[in-house]
Amino acid sequence: MIVLISGASSGFGALTARALVDAGHTVYAGMRDLAGRNATAAADAAAYSPGLRAVELDVSSETSAQQAVDTVVGEQGRIDVLIHNAGHMVTGPAEAFTPAQVLDLYDTNVVGTQRLNRAALPVMRAQQDGLVVWVGSSSTRGGTPPYLAPYFAAKAGMDALAQSYALELARFGIETTIVVPGAFTHGTNHFLHSGSPADLDVVAAYETKYAGLMDQVGQRLAELEPEWSDVGEVARLIVQVVDTEKGKRPFRATYDPSDDGAIVVNAVADRVRSELLHRIGLEDLLHPVA
């Protein structure tokens, strides 16, 4: 299959791109600034396999999203799988983030998926076929510690968008899966590279009551994560979803070694969603047209 994945310079994205290539797929690994900050990542991708091709993709730019899709279609004639992986994490007291910072976070984690969808979905709708994979987070419905509110809110927004898109794409023969990773403190550590709040005065005020809280959260999450936890399993889970026969792919697939409760809550929420669609006579939207 022909795959386009965003945010593939490192982390889940890089692991997934390589795993998909190993499984026999042709993968376009979307990265920002191929000639600059991600030049090494692009070179590493090219050296890994002829089936792995770096493509310039900045999800904060409509032009970039369209050009990336045009590159894939121009070279391959189609897009079979679109993977929304690009994202950014921030840590700190919610009040200390400026509105501009929160908007920027939403722009990357939520609006970026909309830009890429508007570029890629016309191709998939014309094909009457395709798969959209959204890399979400167990934080959208699992137990959530403090000092991660803007990130959690953005991932929840992306999850809500994915749920609606799934229904609106089904009659075009386009399938949707939301992949839900838990928190990882080794292998790929989002906390290590997270952004910080800009209002340092507010940060200082919170330190009077919550001194060292983020360090405590990171330490406790690390203690919860079992030794057998393997971030590579997220990539392998995505490969499994892609390789599953159309119509039999799961709506949601989770790998959460620390078990924050998201599996339980999502199961209830997704059942309620399904029941409502049956009650209003739209149960056909739960599965893509073959």
TrEMBL record:
InterPro entries: NAD(P)-bd_dom_sf, SDR_fam, SDR_oxidoreductase
Top-level taxon: Bacteria
SUPFAM superfamilies: NAD(P)-binding Rossmann-fold domains (SSF51735)
Family classification: Belongs to the short-chain dehydrogenases/reductases (SDR) family.
Protein name per its UniProtKB record: SDR family oxidoreductase
Source organism per UniProt: Kribbella antibiotica
